[in-house]
Design brief:
α7 links the parallel β5 and β6. The protein is built from 17 helices and 15 strands. It is α/β, with parallel strands linked by helices and 417 residues long. The strands form two sheets. An eight-stranded mixed β-sheet has the order 9-8-7-10-11-14-13-12, with helices on one face. Strands 3-2-1-4-5-6-15 form a seven-stranded parallel β-sheet, with helices on both faces. Helices cover 44% and strands 16% of the residues. Bound molecules: 1,4-dihydronicotinamide adenine dinucleotide.
């Protein structure tokens, strides 16, 4: 038992172990990395601080990094995505955990600070909170840090802002931007798990409804695709003309939110930007419209404005808040506007997180070996790592592909015909 940890309830461990073992059975690439590396303990001597959505797949990553020799301290990357039973199981497995479901703002910040106070040498961040605190309030811990990895689009934006001001103090690998990450995790993972979270929560039919998806990036494409597959009429809102053309050619209606807000039965924001649904949109919305967010932070739905407009607010079902207007109209917000797939569900499927977390593992090994040679910048994941993860995935699902002949390779690298 690790005495440093702060969790909700250690007696929940049994259910956490069951969740972790089910997830790990469906994470063949991580298991392959375990086979390849665990006897060599390549992370011996490293202290890894992790801030990720703290559920079963993340627990598999933490456990693997520990098996590869590292000391691992972990916290959650969103107050509502932490699962207390998984935390309890992780503590029994020897990982140091600072997290619980639905902490106060002070507790949540304290957990991030405690994770950094374990003096990490490597960072795994999701949304940029650990890196941001390290550069603002915990600079005394910067000296030990060799580098880190960022899991999501919003975190990469924050890192690039830090880099632009020449303030970034260690190399950060943009795991989110690896092909083996965003093509599958952001698109298929978010696409599927957003509807897992929404359907678990509302238990209503999707077919025939009008769903407004805001943001047609990698996540938005997945969400719109799955909404269409479930039989919804889909409207996309965008600010980028190229993404808007893509949505249009993919067969979706494209229009400004001011217009779309009149038609939607369900709104799903996934832009990584703030104030996507605001007062003017709430005014337009139909009675009974459902509002959900899948972007990293809970800033996409202007809840303050909604609260100011409502005459009554009540929790009517787990993860559904009913906002009643003076004219009797009701709008329903899911999971407090936090990422609905994690706050009201189990997050991405295990096979998807298998790829994302295998990238994380290989990137940490790469950072350990190469940190002295790396620029203190936001860096791309080396293509060998990216391709290795997809190759291992193909092997795991029994799919073989062709390989280039020498003649073809030559042809592809020649300027003569
Ligand atoms: P992306 O950068 O590929 O796409 C975002 C899209 O939103 C862009 O096309 C942009 O033009 C559009 N956008 C920005 N402001 C807008 C506005 N005011 N109205 C309409 N569209 C707007 O980003 P990606 O990878 O799709 O990620 C989106 C968000 O989802 C990020 O916060 C990311 O961190 C988060 N994320 C959430 C996951 C989850 O499990 N829920 C998984 C992966 C990422």
């Amino acid at each position: 038992m690790n005495t440093q940890s702060i969790i909700k309830d250690s007696s929940l461990a049994e259910s956490g172990h069951l969740k972790i073992s089910w997830a790990y059975r469906h994470m063949p690439v991580l298991r392959r990395l375990e086979e390849e590396f665990s006897s060599k303990k390549p992370l011996a001597g490293e202290r890894i601080a992790i801030c990720l959505h703290l559920e079963a797949k993340t627990a598999c990553l933490a456990k693997l990094l520990q098996d590869l020799g590292a000391f691992v301290a972990i916290t959650g990357s969103n107050p509502l995505s932490t699962q207390d039973d998984v935390c309890a199981a992780l503590v029994e497995l020897g990982v140091t955990v600072f997290a619980k479901y639905n902490p106060s703002y002070e507790e949540y910040t304290n957990f991030l600070n405690k994770t950094l106070e374990t003096s990490p040498t490597l960072i795994v961040d999701d949304g940029g909170d650990l890196v941001s605190i390290l550069h603002k309030d915990k600079q005394e811990f910067l000296t030990n840090i060799k580098g880190g990895c960022e899991e999501t689009t919003t975190g990469i934006l924050r890192l690039k802002a830090l880099e632009k001001e020449s303030l970034l103090k260690f190399p950060m690998l943009a795991v989110n931007d690896a092909f083996s990450k965003y093509l599958f995790d952001n698109r298929y993972g978010t696409g599927q798990s957003v509807f897992d979270g929404i359907n678990n929560t509302i238990n209503l039919v999707i077919a025939g409804k009008t769903i407004v998806v805001s943001g047609y990036g990698w996540c938005g494409k997945g969400v719109a695709m799955r909404a269409k597959g479930l039989g919804a009429k889909v409207i996309v809102t965008e600010v980028n003309p190229i993404k808007a053309v893509e949505a249009y050619m993919d067969g979706f209606l494209v229009m400004p939110m001011l217009e779309a807000s009149k038609y939607g039965d369900i709104f799903i924001t996934v832009t990584g930007n703030k104030n996507i649904l605001t007062k003017e949109h709430f005014q337009n919305m139909k009675d009974g419209a459902i509002l959900a967010n899948a972007g990293h932070f809970n800033v996409e739905i202007d809840l303050k404005a909604l609260e100011a407009m409502a005459v009554e607010k009540s929790v009517i079902r787990k993860n559904i808040v009913d906002y009643k207007f003076a004219n009797g109209k009701r709008l329903y917000v899911l999971a407090e506007g936090r990422l609905v797939n994690l706050a009201a569900g189990d997050g991405h499927p295990a096979e998807i997180m298998d790829m994302s977390f295998s990238l994380q593992t290989l990137c940490l090994l790469y950072l350990k070996e190469n940190f002295k040679k790396l620029a203190t910048k936001v860096l791309n994941v080396p293509s060998e790592i990216d391709e290795k993860v997809s190759s291992y995935f193909l092997e795991a699902v029994g799919v073989k592909i062709d390989s280039l002949s020498l003649e073809q390779l030559d042809y592809l690298h020649s300027w003569k015909l």
